């Protein structure tokens, strides 16, 4: 990017300007502040009422039950596929064992579940856990959380998502990525070789190269039986922790979850992210993708000495997150010759300004704000607060960010749209609506198009294709009217409020079904028409399911801009 363009886009690293109001800089927080009717909380609810709603949602296990009901009710391919499917999902579940476990009385139930069990006098229906590859065992069952057990109580309709529920009950394994520069820069090559050699020779029982990395030296993951995670690393192997910390400080490795690596790997695989590229990371914090991309666009060999290095614009709407991003990059151990290629900006991604010079980007990383329900293996706080309204509320923002990304691309440029959510409202629905609009109002019916996942990029990795149909739901908390809780209290004792009340979803087959509902829905949340579906081919999107490769959940789509695109404002 030229200097004039940089001047128009970039604020100084030392002067982080907040160009947005505090109420709009955390989209996920805003989505979570929606009340149970899907609307912004208003003055009709007191502070104590709002606290009571939040407390009830957590303590009653409503989030777990809604999560289970939502994904059990979704179409095939969202989190489950048939055993004979060609989508590479593992099929080693043992439903007979699950049925036996269902018939047993188990310990570790929540208080609410125990009360329900006592009232009914019945047995507790439960779901087994698994390790990757997914195998349901009694030992794995004992590891599942009591809240998730209670959520599937007496619910035989959840059997088809047993493997999914089991997979997300396991702690996320430690994953390491050897930095790209370690294989190119002379100053790092020998150190990287020694580091990899030590990992393979001394710690092969704890970490090994993943099978889907053909180089056998780029991505390492904790072995299935090691129980090694970022939380247990120091306890299980202090020596390995010291080695990893040393490798990190020297800029050799990065601790990065596999899903987080995929957008950059895919962009490099279609040859749009390479040495010299101009890249925009629209929602850059915490910075793992920024650094991963920087290693490619800024690292050069002797043959590249005469070529111009690339640049990365790292943007984030939240000034504090941007400062954290800068601090993380300073601590990464990556050389300043690389990090000086980063330009930091503080803009709303959906309104990111066009450079005055007119210089647009070769590729864009649009890892948008999302509900994050694919990250429950490393963030257990997501499920207690889970509601479908979070995804529904983020849908429009995600669309506007993707549209802006496409506008900022060069002709022929590619954007990697991604989320760490498995909810199709945040994934395929966003991609389908933006591509449908972009092509509908363009002279060329293929003004924007989905690209296939590059064949040479992690060829052994198990994916599920994008889904073409899905369901839309929300829920109204019928118990809100019964809440009476004095300010300063932290319980419902004496309020007449029943923690045992079940949270249930309402499903909407079409946008027309929501006409008489006080909700904020958009027609774009529903699957596209058959014609649009055939033109878009959503199967080119990629879903990473937690049980297939022992990872978190992730979604990624590659979108190429073939001609200029104008999005009609009155259709957003």
From TrEMBL:
<dbReference type="GO" id="GO:0001510">
    <property type="term" value="P:RNA methylation"/>
</dbReference>
<dbReference type="InterPro" id="IPR049560">
    <property type="entry name" value="MeTrfase_RsmB-F_NOP2_cat"/>
</dbReference>
<feature type="region of interest" description="Disordered">
    <location>
        <begin position="106"/>
        <end position="126"/>
    </location>
</feature>
<feature type="binding site">
    <location>
        <position position="316"/>
    </location>
    <ligand>
        <name>S-adenosyl-L-methionine</name>
    </ligand>
</feature>
<feature type="domain" description="SAM-dependent MTase RsmB/NOP-type">
    <location>
        <begin position="164"/>
        <end position="562"/>
    </location>
</feature>
<feature type="binding site">
    <location>
        <position position="367"/>
    </location>
    <ligand>
        <name>S-adenosyl-L-methionine</name>
    </ligand>
</feature>
<dbReference type="InterPro" id="IPR023267">
    <property type="entry name" value="RCMT"/>
</dbReference>
<feature type="active site" description="Nucleophile">
    <location>
        <position position="420"/>
    </location>
</feature>
<feature type="binding site">
    <location>
        <position position="348"/>
    </location>
    <ligand>
        <name>S-adenosyl-L-methionine</name>
    </ligand>
</feature>
<keyword id="KW-0489">Methyltransferase</keyword>
<dbReference type="GO" id="GO:0008173">
    <property type="term" value="F:RNA methyltransferase activity"/>
</dbReference>
<comment type="similarity">
    <text>Belongs to the class I-like SAM-binding methyltransferase superfamily. RsmB/NOP family.</text>
</comment>
<dbReference type="Pfam" id="PF01189">
    <property type="entry name" value="Methyltr_RsmB-F"/>
</dbReference>
<keyword id="KW-0949">S-adenosyl-L-methionine</keyword>
<dbReference type="InterPro" id="IPR029063">
    <property type="entry name" value="SAM-dependent_MTases_sf"/>
</dbReference>
<protein>
    <recommendedName>
        <fullName>SAM-dependent MTase RsmB/NOP-type domain-containing protein</fullName>
    </recommendedName>
</protein>
<feature type="compositionally biased region" description="Basic and acidic residues">
    <location>
        <begin position="30"/>
        <end position="39"/>
    </location>
</feature>
<feature type="compositionally biased region" description="Basic residues">
    <location>
        <begin position="106"/>
        <end position="120"/>
    </location>
</feature>
<dbReference type="InterPro" id="IPR001678">
    <property type="entry name" value="MeTrfase_RsmB-F_NOP2_dom"/>
</dbReference>
<feature type="region of interest" description="Disordered">
    <location>
        <begin position="1"/>
        <end position="45"/>
    </location>
</feature>
<keyword id="KW-0694">RNA-binding</keyword>
<keyword id="KW-0808">Transferase</keyword>
<dbReference type="GO" id="GO:0003723">
    <property type="term" value="F:RNA binding"/>
</dbReference>
